[in-house]
């Protein structure tokens, strides 16, 4: 064991980063379990565009495994990658169903975007963008992501729901009982709330692996409730069984073939204006979602240097770019760095060994999908809500006494959850920072690249 730990220490510099194999394993399990939902959600979304659901599940697992391994090898960071939420919805519902393009054409746009990403990463453009963002905005991005992922958790668990009158509102147990859906949705809301409190108590008591224990606690409670008849799954309401389905026997552990979607790219419209618009939309969102995640999670983990730069960022950006390219070839939408990586970082993950463990679990998910697919959204919601709190603490590093710094930071923070987008939060933050500082006479604080970014963001809102 010592020889193995010594080898891993030399490979990933565990001691230098104040971590251990046990800590990295725990962080990897936690990160994987908070993002395992993508194995169920991505096939569901992309199948709406006419893609084979089983093949998309296989592609999702493989793209996530490969991308996360690349992050470990090229950057030695504890960040995990998978097909991005939001980007997959844009792929299926906007590009294919609304604009009328084939999913093969959409995949080709993702592929071209990935190639451009690789070029931008090799030419230091993405790294320069990262370094150009002021430190106060970087802190704001971390805090904004905290609110954003907390909102994702609350929505996934249906603690927060849509409301025609107030846009969003708290889940109504009274209405659930009246509608006869309490045993399908109401009980899971209660379980998610119990999971949040349980995880918080574990955190206060400094129990090791508190976030992972919160996920397992909530999931096990769900299994008990289903077996007791307190929870009644209803697929029509997207409420599925939380008990692993092993009824197919050995066949349940066989991954679906990639053949229906592997390498199915269509470049026939590559030189059209519409193709460019679609490709640029993928490119823009991916760039700033990735940068936002890297800024937020690395800031929380104290990985930024004294100048606010992230060492080895080129490797991290290249991993993201290559993952997008390979993911498109395998048959899935844009693969990107996941904000749920923050859960593993919160458990102490500091090196690429965390990412290696996440990648291993994604590989195992190909044959253990009945178990991973059974982890419900209400079980991972507590992890997202609690990690949201941990990331929100970054606001303490913002210079609130300097309004020219703090107001743009505030705008960036609130834009992320309210616009449901990391990239929009960065856009609003950059634009407001440049405009406020320019108009109040502090132009020396604005770099040339910040001016360029502000102009590009404004142009995006005008022309896209």
Assembly type of the chains comes to: single chain
Largest sheet: 2 strands, antiparallel
Strand order of the largest sheet: 1-4
Strand elements, count:
4
Q: How much beta, percentage-wise?
A: under 5%
The span between the termini is 56 Å
Q: Average pLDDT, to the nearest integer?
A: 89
Number of domains: 2
Number of helical segments? 20
The radius of gyration over CA amounts to 22 Å
List segments where confidence is low: pLDDT < 50 over at least 5 consecutive residues.
none
Based on Cα principal axes, name the global outline: globular
Pattern of helices and strands: HHHHEHHHHEEHHHHHEHHHHHHH
Helical/strand content category: mainly alpha
Helix content: 55-70%
Give a written overview of the molecule.
This protein has 464 residues and is mainly alpha-helical. The chain has 20 helices and 4 strands. Strands 1-4 form a two-stranded antiparallel sheet.
